[in-house]
Amino acid sequence: MTLIQTRFDEWQKQLWKEFAEEVNGNIINRGKYNPDTLVYKYKLWTVVLEEMIYMVSGTSSGELVTRLKIPIVNKQGLHFKVHKEDLFKKVFKLFGSQDIQVGAPAMDKRFIIEGNNEKVIRKILTNESIKELMLLMPNAYFRLRTDEEKNGDDFPVGVDLLEIYVSGKIGQLGLLVAFHNVLTRTCDILTELDQSFGIDPEVRLL
What we know:
The protein has 206 residues and is α+β, with helices and mostly antiparallel strands. The protein contains six helices and nine strands. The chain has helices at residues 3-23, 87-94, 105-110, 118-125, 128-135, 173-192; strands spanning 26-28, 37-42, 45-55, 62-74, 80-84, 111-115, 141-144, 159-167, 196-197. A hairpin with a 2-residue loop joins strand 2 (37-42) and strand 3 (45-55). The longest helix is centred in the first third of the chain and has 21 residues, at 3-23. The radius of gyration is 17 Å and the shape is globular.
């Protein structure tokens, strides 16, 4: 390990400690060969911050990501994905590939938005706080996953994962706070819209 990498790791540990203090969380040491995990509560939900290898669909390869996740009771089977528009998606759009337009020009231009309930998804993404934060995080991948996208998590029927992540490690406290604010505000909106119960499904997360 290089000196630069060692110093970054030390800086990151301090960053996670500061974030843990902000959210009243606990940092769990998972041993020498596994990265630490931060666990905390927002209202009745359990929130987990972690670094993990995300397997790329259809391949045997993966990439390191930093992820904040909240398991929720998904009453209506909602799912959505919000992610940066890339060259391939621009081409698909030109040839008629469908994605959701939420009516916020900056969001519609910057992100590909997919899902199964346009009304609810618009309500989430046009929330001023969520919209503002997402526009500050153009490389983030934000979604409420379907059963087909478990990627190693094993949840019972009716429990799905709300998550936001970026590639690599995070070196800014403000980005961790933004992750927290996007997910927790989304949880509140889903409960208000009767898409989710405001309870902890109590599934294993580590």
